Amino acid sequence: ISSVGLRPLTVYGVGRELGLTSDATKAIKSAVLRRPFAMNYRGTTLFHYIEDVAQLFIRCSQQCVVRPGAYACNIKGVTMDCSDFLGHLCKLVPSARDYVKINPDGIVLPFPDAMEQDTLDHLFVGQPPLSITSVPDAIKRIVEQFQELKRQNKLHANDLPSKL
């Protein structure tokens, strides 16, 4: 039986609001809801947009039919400092500067800030390149999705702290 395991690091996007590295998503959500939020990690990490990871998983499952095997794949992602990530958010949602911060006492994630994806590249030899959505474009999409959920009164804040 063929299988594939993907190893992303900081996955962000609608639906990714739980877990250690979900603060990137929560920061965007907080900006849309205009609620105070502090990211509890800082420094550089690999960011992976949730839709890219989902599309990659679908493509990998299809490719496992063509190239049977068991694959454990790192994903390069976009290496970026958390403060730069928030900078992109603030360009799209200027009021985010008033609500979203990085906790200066937050942890530095104990993960590498760069990874090779040789196994993944091998799996896709001769195939169209794997897409990586730029962080500004991904944040724009997420903001639009959260704004639409807010407009429909379907955006909750249950996963956000009540106070900072």
Topology:
Blueprint: E1 3-7, E2 10-12, H1 23-33, E3 37-42, E4 44-49, H2 50-66, E5 70-74, E6 78-81, H3 82-92, E7 100-108, H4 118-123, H5 135-151
Parallel strand pairs: 1-5, 2-4, 3-7
Antiparallel strand pairs: 4-6
Gist?
With 164 residues, the chain is an alpha/beta fold. The chain is 38% helix and 23% strand.
Explained architecture:
The mean pLDDT is 93. The longest helix is centred in the middle third of the chain and has 17 residues, at 50-66. The protein has 164 residues and is an alpha/beta fold. The strands form three sheets. Strands 2-4-6 form a three-stranded mixed β-sheet. A two-stranded parallel sheet has the order 1-5. It has a two-stranded parallel sheet with strand order 3-7. It has helices spanning 23-33, 50-66, 82-92, 118-123, 135-151, and strands at 3-7, 10-12, 37-42, 44-49, 70-74, 78-81, 100-108. The N and C termini lie far apart (48 Å).
